[in-house]
Amino acid sequence: MAVSGSTPLSGGRVHALLRPAADVRLRAAREALEHHQGVVVTGAWGSGRSTLLAQLGRTVERDTLVVRACPRPGDEGRPLSGLAQMLAALPQNTAEVLSREQRTLLRQIVGEEVPSLDVLAVRLAFASLVTASGASPGWLLMVDDVQWLDGTSAEVLRHVVGSVPPDRLRVVVADRTVTRPALGHRVTGEHVPTIALEPLTLEETVAHLESRGVRAAAGVALHHLSGGHPLLVRALAEDAADGRRVTAGRYADAAGTRVREAASAWLATVDDDVRGTLARVALAHEPTRLQVRRTWGSSSDAHVASAVQEGILGLLPGDRVVFTAEALRYEAGDGTSERLTGAAHRALAATSPDPVHAARHRLLGQDRPGDDVLTGADEAAALARAGGDCALSADILLAAAERTPNDRRASRVRRLTEAARDAGAAGRAELARRAADALATARAGRAQVVALLAAVDASGQELTEMDELLPRARRLAGADMGLLAAVDLRSAIRHNLGGRPEEARRAARRAAREASAAHEPQIAVAALTMQARMERITAHPAAQRTLRRALGAEQSGTALALRDTPRYLACRHALFDDRLDQAETALMTCSRSPRSPGRRTTCRKCSGASRSWMSAGARASEPRGGASGPSPSAGVRDCPSVRPGTPVR
Q1: How many CB atoms within 10 Å of residue 598?
Q2: Distance CA 604, CA 596 (A)
Q3: How far apart are CA 20 and CA 15, in angstroms?
Q4: Fewer CB under 10 Å: which end of the chain, C or N?
Q5: Closest CA to 122 of 86, 157, 77
Q6: Average pLDDT of each block of 10 consecutive residues along the chain (649 residues)?
Q7: 68 strand-pairing partners
Q8: Percent of the chain with pLDDT over 70
Q9: How far is CA 605 from CA 321, 569, 601, 608, 639, in A?
Q10: DSSP assigned state of 177
């Protein structure tokens, strides 16, 4: 919440959860009324403006006469309809203090058909009513949804606010906007402060969802999904309370009926033309206002401005246009016909400044693309991967595979396999599973296991996901020792994350034997390193011997990332044993080692290198003296935007 005005109010921005936030906002509004004659409350649809007005009306002084108007769509075209609501709500005999002419004038306003009245006379009559009535300590006028208040009523109220003594009248106006409340200030004047009901922060969203049983690990994704909008956050919490497993991942999986209905209702606050532009913008990647205008004409500028005012869209530096909640973006594009979607993609292909996204739009704009478009998609995926955006690469390859002709099965399987690996590298389990399901349909054999293992690695600490995928991968691996080694390596990680170090040690040992039989040195070194780690945790007497085996096997050359190598583990063990000189020497040797030639990705958000495909296991802490059990944080990802993949070669 932000409070602004001619006089600073307490605290400026206030962070609070849903229930405490109401108390904070209420205190800010009451403080504003104590120092000023009014206050304007702003916020997007569903942000709690009406609730705040209702609370404020219940907590003012006992003898205050609270008069409220709640105009509705269409009232803006009915002169004096807002004032008629206020007059109709007054207690009987309130107008007896006026002259007979003024009483008659006000009764005519409340009548079903308002005649053509002298607005000046109406102003004077209403001002006299407020001044002369016996209400003590005075009146509190409240206008909810002022955007639908008719202009004549706004003019009368503005005159009354400016002419009646402050001790006789205070006014509170709610304006459904996240920009400057021009309509609210039309009633109150520019001098009154504004209370902006802002979205919840990431910390507030995570804390609220966690209190409703949602895992904190999904908090970042769910905050992105809801944008911190109170109504969407509450919908996620209610879905969780009903037993729905709310997780990060595909929108269809993360968003329940309540979230979808709330997002659709918010989008329904704008007209059909704006909805059409929003559906097109939802298909674009980080569009600017200039690109939107170039793609769909100058009329789209007004549509974007309307959506920004409603809080549906936001403007970032560089005039970039974004949806304030991912749920809005998904719902905006939902239900759009294939014809209109294809036309939008073709239009975006012509105006996108990014060659990768231009190629993606050319691909998505056609159901049966030619060889040149499919080849362009492969090249675009390679460019995205080289730039560190493996999620985009996976998305492009999946779309290309879906559009690959059936008589080109080898090309289709290749694209799906690469898509699975890229999805694993990006931590996008839902994309990896899509690839795995498509490979299963194609009966692609070994490639299915590659995709399933990529989905396992991308699932992070979602243990239920691992428990579902690993048996499938093991069954499909059959007698292939290389694939069985890869599966057992993930099983070791699964047991470690589940707090079963002895089972993890046995699985790692199996993986090492299988990798050796299959002549897979990279998996063998990783498995031995994992085995040594688990033996250290369980105080197994063979821990040092296993680590020496891993160090010897590493000399033959592997493509593991540094933190997953046995020499890095040896450095950690030296540190835990207080062999500090040895640890320092080993660490300096590691830091001078040439960069691993293996597959790496770069986090576009934090510019850090992602961890390799063994990261989940590498994060198990080996405590001093071989205390049992993994660290509670074992396997936690350091960066929410990039996660390790599983390139099985």
Answers
A1: 15
A2: 20
A3: 9
A4: C
A5: 157
A6: 39 40 76 84 90 84 85 91 90 84 87 74 90 77 93 92 86 92 88 88 83 74 87 82 57 69 92 92 91 90 93 92 92 83 92 93 93 95 93 95 92 93 88 89 86 85 80 88 92 89 92 91 90 90 89 72 81 86 80 48 35 31 35 27 29
A7: 142
A8: 83
A9: 18, 28, 12, 8, 9
A10: B
Residue 384: name the closest of 602, 102, 566 by CA. 602
Note the pLDDT tens digit of each residue in 80-113. 999 999 998 888 888 888 888 888 888 888 876 6
546 is written with which tokens?
Answer: 């296993």
Nearest to 1 by CA among 37, 57, 39: 39
Q: How far apart are CA 147 and CA 72, in angstroms?
A: 9
First to last CA, the chain: 52
Tokens 């600490």 locate to 461
Coil, strand or helix at 351: helix
Give the rounded percent of residues in the chain with a pLDDT score beyond 90.
33
AA identity, residue 450: V
pTM for the model stands at 0.73
Q: Are strands 65-69 and 194-196 parallel, antiparallel or unpaired?
A: unpaired
Contact present, 174 and 144 (Cβ < 8 Å): yes
For residue 2, give the H/E element and its range. strand 2-4
**Helices 481-497 and 501-517: crossing angle, nearest 10°?**
160
What's the length of the chain?
Answer: 649
Q: What is the CA radius of gyration of the chain?
A: 32
